[in-house]
Fold this sequence. Notes:
Blueprint: E1 37-46, E2 49-57, E3 67-72, E4 82-87, E5 91-97, E6 103-107, E7 114-116, H1 121-128, E8 133-141, E9 147-151, E10 163-167, H2 201-206, E11 212-224, E12 228-238, E13 251-257, E14 260-261, E15 264-265, E16 311-313, E17 342-344, E18 347-353, E19 359-368, E20 375-380
Antiparallel strand pairs: 1-2, 2-5, 3-4, 3-6, 7-9, 8-11, 9-10, 10-20, 11-19, 12-17, 12-18, 12-20, 13-19, 14-15, 16-17
Amino acid sequence: MDDSGPPSPPGDGELGTNSSGTGSSSYGPPITANDLWLAINGVTDDEMGWTANLTIHPPWNDTNLTHDLLYTTHLDPPTDWHFLMRCLSTNVVVSGLCEAQGFFALTQTNGDLTLSTNSTAEQLAQLLVPPWVTIHNASYTGSDVARGTFAGGNGCGLPIDSGVILATGHITNALGPNDDDGSISSGGGYGPSCLGLPGDADLDSLVGGGPTWDAAVLEFDIISTNSFTLQFQYIFASEEYPEWINYYNDVMAIFVSTNYDGTNWINSITNDFALVPGTTNVPVTVSAINGGCTDDQNCFCAVQPTNPQYYVDNHDPNIIWSGSAMPPYAVPAPVFNIQYDGMTVLLTAQTFISANVTNHIKIAIGDYLDDWFDSAVFINAWSPGQCQ
């Protein structure tokens, strides 16, 4: 891999230049303290693809909170640059790269989400699986305003540009900027949810019996003529961050099942593949992945971070710091152009699919204990560029 950039990168930001750390570049003049440059510290290979460890070296007078990292496998025109992530620090780890050789560049992007609730359950399902997979029995349970499609995610700083969104409230509550510390189904601020819908029994079982509320559930069956690894890339985001992580444990799941009891598919933690990385039985919830909460953040109860390496803060706009130092993992201002106060990094749920076997997919999200502050899951649209 190389950390070189093109003569003029996409966007209106800065260029990451090739460097061996010696202050020289094979693509331009020597690097000085006034330059922005990117160093590759090491590359490793594992079962999920290639992982690169990078360091961003900003100019001495750079006041940017973030830099956006782009990637391509070639520099031959036309160069196809892909957004990877919005970097919140100078030390960056990029995982899941499909190719052993590639190029990085730095820039800054700015844009807005576009959202639509017009798609049917079958259309949403088809967005998430390869074209050779046959879909049957697609259905959606929940409010029609709580499911749909999104685009423009990269411009907001998300590592997912387009796909399917399921939420515990109106999906338009995902729209940035983050100017409310508790956007809820009634449109922001404190107050009862306007959805008032039930939860989901399978989600209840993941969070100690629930109750969950305002569940949004997409279900469908798939059959493939060839075996392959089914993969969902997703981000879980919530307005429960950071104040309410110890109590209002909003939850999501991606169940993949081949077993049923009578006419009901069997779903439990054992076939939920949306798990905290490195665990075998911990579902993704606000309590399972977070940056903790301190008295400085005016939290309901001080909580230590849980799996913070998978958490990304987006700042609670109504927090007033009462201490002299900012709490760990908190950012001083919103850095993603979405309303949610925090989210996970890009996570992957995957499982092996045998040929000619019916698999039932159930993607669900729900509020826990109360039906106020919203959570959402952004799921990447399938593309042939994904590592399969």
